[in-house]
Design a protein that fits this description.
Strand content: over 45%
Number of helices: 2
Order of helices and strands: HEEEEEEEEEEEH
Largest sheet: 6 strands, antiparallel
Low-confidence stretches: none
C-alpha cells in the first residue's frame, strides 16, 4: 500500500512540515467538501523534540500503513497518557487534544478527515507548562501548494 500511496500522491498538492529545518510530515490535499478536508499524511519521523500541541480543527485520522506512538496530555497538562496506533486504528483528534508523536514506524500513512476551522491558531505548551499561540492554521494551504517533486526541489534550492 505504501508504494501505491506514493504513486497516488505524486502530483497532489503537498505541504512539507518541518521541525528544526528537517522534514517531519508530508501533508497531501485530496478533496474539499462543504469546508471539510480530506488529507493524506506521510510521516517521515516523530515530532518528539517539539512541545505538546493541539490543532485549530477537529479531525479523524485512520492509520493506513505503519503506526505511531502518541503522548497525550491529560487534564491540567501535568499528566500524560501514551497510546499506540497501528494499521486500521482510528485516532479522534479534537481541537483541544494536546499531544505529540513520540515514535513512528517506517512508511506510516494516515487518512485525515478534517473539520472546517474551529479557531485561528495552533497552541503549544511552552517550557513553563503554559499554553501559547503557535502559527496560523493555514486551512487552505493546498490552493498554492506544489506537488512533492516541486516542494523538495524548492527546499534544495533554498
Amino acid at each position: 500500500m505504501h508504494h501505491w500511496l506514493m504513486r497516488y500522491t505524486k502530483n497532489k498538492p503537498m505541504r512539507l512540515i518541518e521541525i528544526n529545518g528537517e522534514p517531519y510530515l508530508e501533508r497531501y490535499h485530496i478533496l474539499s467538501v462543504f469546508g471539510f478536508k480530506i488529507w493524506l499524511h506521510r510521516f517521515i519521523r516523530n515530532d518528539s523534540e517539539r512541545h505538546l500541541h493541539n490543532h485549530p480543527w477537529h479531525a479523524i485520522s485512520i492509520i493506513l500503513t505503519g503506526g505511531y506512538r502518541e503522548i497525550v496530555a491529560l487534564k491540567g497538562y501535568r499528566n500524560w497518557d501514551i497510546i499506540d496506533y497501528e494499521r486500521g486504528n482510528v485516532n479522534v483528534i479534537k481541537a483541544d487534544k494536546t499531544h505529540r508523536i513520540l515514535q513512528v514506524e517506517p512508511n506510516t500513512w494516515t487518512l485525515m478527515l478534517v473539520s472546517p476551522r474551529v479557531r485561528k491558531n495552533w497552541f503549544f505548551i511552552n517550557d513553563d507548562g503554559d499554553m501559547e499561540a503557535g502559527p496560523n492554521g493555514g486551512h487552505d494551504w493546498h490552493r498554492t501548494a506544489g506537488n512533492r517533486d516541486n516542494t523538495y526541489l524548492l527546499r534544495r534550492i533554498k
